[in-house]
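Before relying on records like the one below, remember that each one covers exactly one chain. Contacts with other chains, cofactors or solvent are not represented anywhere in the record.
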Amino acid sequence: MDSNRFSELLNLYLADKATDEDRDALFQLIRGGHHDEMIREKIQVMLLTEPVMAKIDSRKTQKLVKEIVAREEGKIIPIRQASTNWRWVAAAAVLLISVSAGWLIFTTTPVPDHHVTLLEEKEAQPVVFSGKQFVHLPDGSTALLNDGTELSYTSSFGEHTREVTLTGEGYFDVQHNTSKPFKVITGKITTTVLGTAFNVQAYPGRGEIKVTVTRGRVQVNDGQRTFGVVTRDQQIAVNTVTHDFVQTNLNAETAVAWQSQYLILDNVSLEEAVKSIGEKYGVKITLENPELKACRISATFVNGEDLDQVLTVVCGVVHATYTMLPDGNAKIEGEGCR
């Protein structure tokens, strides 16, 4: 059953229009574990749309949670109901829960375009990510995708090679592996690295591909010749028609400034998280209980969420509350993580 059918079943269930057969089919798919990303996306979109979310029965989101966590019995922390906080219930429903030293790790993925296509058995299974989002690749590398971007790789990624195909713009932070170079394929142009951080811009119709390096070094080629080796604070621009290229020195952070629109909390402590949130929104956030510092969280905000939305999700995950102070700053209160 494909992703479109799963999305249809999930919509029917949340809208209270599913038949008994629809519900059985939905939860059988959830137990299979192949559609957890879509569950995150669906509920996260609703989480940020209060008029829609207010109409959803919290019992339904709790049922989704139970079906997901049933697969991880013995490895998860029980979820405490917060009956008066519908946003927390929504956040709980998008948890694909894992535990590290006794705390919850939560990932938000507010992009409804991400989809996974399954081919016939025994064939490679392509995984496709579309639109603005933060992607964890199977080898531990990450990719931050800009608007209008598509990233794909096969299910065999990492077994013998590490290759992804990109259309649009993405910022990659690659895990070092000398035996398996990481390759970003953009049309006929290939960017090859061992372990580094770099940006690739390859939008259709622009006539050129730009590779900008913020850490380490990358090699850019077309399969027949190498255009150049690019190091930190350098950029190479390759004409996709003539394959002429220009390599220049620049401030790489300025060249990839589009990332500053996003807020990425990638398995960080709550202490680090509130620092990043405070810097982005220009506020000071105080943790009233020192034990809150130990909580860890992963969350991605790429759709221009405001401070209220961010703090609601973050506090909901760690079972805390926040208060906006008269001076515009905020404080977070809660039991913390031991």
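The chain has three domains: 3-100, 133-257, 267-334.
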